[in-house]
């Protein structure tokens, strides 16, 4: 039996049309008037930022925009953002975008108040003081940074990723509006949707899972899995978009109170070295880690299979787990998830370094099955072979 601590300091406003009420919601949670918007050039082109500025200025807020965020957010960009937010004397940081934008906003909020380098706050509970209040508007259904206390940043000098984990960087408000994802391209819907599914699966199976995170993870799967193919194939399906967005947020609540595991360890390794988008990286390694882990905890993997409806109560745990492994491989194929070998920068000579980087990731001990550097190396080689159904890790 485990003792459980569950903290969710984030107010969640979820549903169609909630973004249009952003000005009102910000007035409810903030005292100051100076809003520092963090976004990227792609999101700016959608018109969401302009719409937000108009709403906020109508409510009397003063706005400055920072759009120097790149995929796999860089330490140098976060430091620049922190300096600009400090000079602007921001009363709040508003992130409009995907996971890279939101993670950057969290680091910027720290650096505005406390200075230094993003690396100074790496690890758990190293953000000693309260930071500038963070409000987030996610534009993808997958990263779930809107409800987590984590920020994953790239060390540009070392080409590795590090994580800042502290309740002080949890957003005070998340405006989760599925309508902002209607124009998301199919490939981004696929990779971010798979990313959300990874969060739910790893939260449920990792060694730090608990009854509360388990309940959230299973509920997230019920929202994500049945609608993922539909959302990719028909981005205008309102029911699918709604369920992916809500399911993604629930998955974030699950893993932020448990942990992620080896899928993320491998994904962050290649993200740091090759600058691979995080959702894509998670998606391509999910089938292999599910296969690797399933033999360790058949009951939990069977529960996943039954929860998402690909196994029946009459199936044995072993048969249900096997069905889950098969379906995760098929899902990746159906969604046209890129393969590891298809990435333009991948070099087999890097695999030993990637295995070492994965093994040293702070979430490696949380993986359902004990995993060594040699295991990671084998997994990278198997993923690189792209033979989804020909190799077994049992």
Automatic annotation (TrEMBL):
<comment type="similarity">
    <text>Belongs to the iron-containing alcohol dehydrogenase family.</text>
</comment>
<protein>
    <submittedName>
        <fullName>Alcohol dehydrogenase</fullName>
        <ecNumber>1.1.1.1</ecNumber>
    </submittedName>
</protein>
<feature type="domain" description="Alcohol dehydrogenase iron-type/glycerol dehydrogenase GldA">
    <location>
        <begin position="9"/>
        <end position="178"/>
    </location>
</feature>
<keyword id="KW-0560">Oxidoreductase</keyword>
<dbReference type="InterPro" id="IPR039697">
    <property type="entry name" value="Alcohol_dehydrogenase_Fe"/>
</dbReference>
<keyword id="KW-0520">NAD</keyword>
<dbReference type="InterPro" id="IPR001670">
    <property type="entry name" value="ADH_Fe/GldA"/>
</dbReference>
<dbReference type="InterPro" id="IPR018211">
    <property type="entry name" value="ADH_Fe_CS"/>
</dbReference>
<dbReference type="Pfam" id="PF00465">
    <property type="entry name" value="Fe-ADH"/>
</dbReference>
<dbReference type="InterPro" id="IPR056798">
    <property type="entry name" value="ADH_Fe_C"/>
</dbReference>
<dbReference type="Pfam" id="PF25137">
    <property type="entry name" value="ADH_Fe_C"/>
</dbReference>
<dbReference type="GO" id="GO:0004022">
    <property type="term" value="F:alcohol dehydrogenase (NAD+) activity"/>
</dbReference>
<feature type="domain" description="Fe-containing alcohol dehydrogenase-like C-terminal">
    <location>
        <begin position="189"/>
        <end position="384"/>
    </location>
</feature>
């Amino acid at each position: 039996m485990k003792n459980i601590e569950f903290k969710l300091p984030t107010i969640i406003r979820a549903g169609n049309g909630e973004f249009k009420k952003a000005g009102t919601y910000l007035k409810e949670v903030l005292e100051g008037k100076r809003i520092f918007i963090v976004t990227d050039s792609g999101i700016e082109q959608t018109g969401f930022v302009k719409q937000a500025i108009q709403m906020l200025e109508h409510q009397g807020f003063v706005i400055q925009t920072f759009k120097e965020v790149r995929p796999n957010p860089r330490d140098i960009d976060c430091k620049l953002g922190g300096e600009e937010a400090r000079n602007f004397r921001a009363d709040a940081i508003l992130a409009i975008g995907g996971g890279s934008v939101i993670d950057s906003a969290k680091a910027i909020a720290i650096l505005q108040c406390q200075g230094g380098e993003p690396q100074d706050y790496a690890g758990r509970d190293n953000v000693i003081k309260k930071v500038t209040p963070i409000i987030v508007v996610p534009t993808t259904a997958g990263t779930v940074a809107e409800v987590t206390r984590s920020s994953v940043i790239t060390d540009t000098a070392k080409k590795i990723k590090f994580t800042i984990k502290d309740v002080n960087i949890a957003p005070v408000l998340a405006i989760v509006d599925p309508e902002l994802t209607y124009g998301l391209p199919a490939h981004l819907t696929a990779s971010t949707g798979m990313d959300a599914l990874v969060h739910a699966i790893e939260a449920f199976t990792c060694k730090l899972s608990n009854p509360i995170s388990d309940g959230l993870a299973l509920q997230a799967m019920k929202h994500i899995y049945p609608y993922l193919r539909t959302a990719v194939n028909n981005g205008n399906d309102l029911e699918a978009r709604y369920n992916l967005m809500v399911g993604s947020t629930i998955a974030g609540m699950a893993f932020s109170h448990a942990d992620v595991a080896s899928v993320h360890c491998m994904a962050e390794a290649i993200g740091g070295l090759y600058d691979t988008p995080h959702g894509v990286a998670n998606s391509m390694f999910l089938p292999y880690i599910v296969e690797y882990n399933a033999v360790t905890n058949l009951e939990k993997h069977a529960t996943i299979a039954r929860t998402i409806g690909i196994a029946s109560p009459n199936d044995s745990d072993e048969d249900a787990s096997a069905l889950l492994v098969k379906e995760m491989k098929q899902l990746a194929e159906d969604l046209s998830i890129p393969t590891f070998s298809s990435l333009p920068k991948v070099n087999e000579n890097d695999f030993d370094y990637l295995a070492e980087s994965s093994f040293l990731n702070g979430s490696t001990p949380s993986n359902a099955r004990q995993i060594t550097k040699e295991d990671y190396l084998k997994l990278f080689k198997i993923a690189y072979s792209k033979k989804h159904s020909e190799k077994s890790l049992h």
